Amino acid sequence: MPRFAHVTGWGMAVPHKVLTNFDLAKIVETNNEWIVDRTGIHERRIAEDGETTASLATDAALKALDMANLDPSKVDLVIVSTSSPEHIFPATACLVQDRIGARKAGAFDLSAACTGFIYALNLAAQVIRTGNVDNVLVIGAETLSRLVNWKDRSTCILFGDGAGAFVLQATNVPGGVLSAVMRSDGSGGDLLSLPAGGSRFPTSAATIAQGQHYIHMNGREVFRFATRVMAQATQEAVIKANLQMEDVHLIIPHQANQRIIEAAVRQLDFPMEQVVVNIGSYGNTSTASIPIAACEAIQKGQLKSGDRVVFVGFGAGLTWGAAVVQWSGPILARRRRLPRSYRAWARMLSFLNRVTRFIEGIIWGRWLR
Length: 369
Ligand code: UT7
Description:
With 369 residues, the protein is α/β, with parallel strands linked by helices. It has twelve helices and 13 strands. It has a single domain, classed as Thiolase/Chalcone synthase (Peroxisomal Thiolase, Chain A, domain 1, 3-Layer(aba) Sandwich). The chain has a five-stranded mixed sheet, sandwiched between helices. Strands 8-13-12-11 form a four-stranded mixed sheet. A two-stranded antiparallel ribbon has the order 2-3. A hairpin with a 3-residue loop joins strand 12 and strand 13 (319-326). The site of oxa(dethia)-CoA has 19 residues, from helix 2, helix 6 and helix 8.
């Protein structure tokens, strides 16, 4: 029997703190008119103390699981796409796995910058199709506000924090993720990077003095690259799904710059009313922008069960890609549990795991001596 990977749950989480263009104008030399005109951004959300990539990812994941009526113990795999992980290791996905109590799940982070959610969606669909797993949690989560230089007006005005999550489940009903394309061009890696803090330039007094621990970007070059690849990737994914652009109900692009989105849509000759744009409220939340925009589109009734939607993005790497999805919706009909009860259960489970490891350590320690 062929297997299909359907999106059966979705959820988003953004910090409460709003930073407007007017607030930014008090920090760096900029103004509301310039930011709105050049990017379409009016405000963005910024993580406060206690809010992290994992906490936002966990909040979004629990909402998605709740929507799918899926018990966390049934999740087989957790993929967190992020460019602002909590640590180099352990993976942020493992922290999320523990916090949601997905005790039978594998977990890993995926690093493909703003394109990461599309890569993760595609990988999740592929492992479901092979019959290897049934339920995958795909999360895009960022706190890029912690990595931008708040003195650099060319980058700090762009980014915002947030997370979005999809639950993908296996069924025999045709639909779900229909196709995807994933591309990269490492020759443009220097155009958008965070140079230090990895193994090549470990954090040192010198890297900090040079500001190498912040995001560096050649905005104009990234802009040029983005307008070229967005339309191209969309068309490739649509052809791969054996469809034509007329069969597409909605495009949900990565929210990096309203002008980039409009330029891509013009090249596709696609109606702008069928394109989801929410950059005005959140700025560029990198890999979280597509699932956040999808959640809002569902809320507004723009994305409905049966619709064919294209997700398309680009980002550092350079990377770009697109996926065509026939939208599904929750498929199971069980009593829904509140995310709060998942959380309490996961905390207890995590505590028990720590105690068990401690006791095992004593027993094995004695035996090995
Ligand atoms: O997820 C992927 C992430 N990255 C992107 O998507 C970035 C893609 N690039 C862009 O979105 C745009 O290139 C930016 C929004 C970053 C910049 O817009 P632009 O129209 O390409 O501006 P620019 O860099 O060509 O700069 C134009 C002028 C410059 O002044 P001069 O040299 O012409 O006098 C800048 O210094 O605008 C100035 N400028 C600003 N002015 C007010 C740059 N940033 C600002 C600012 N406020 N925040």
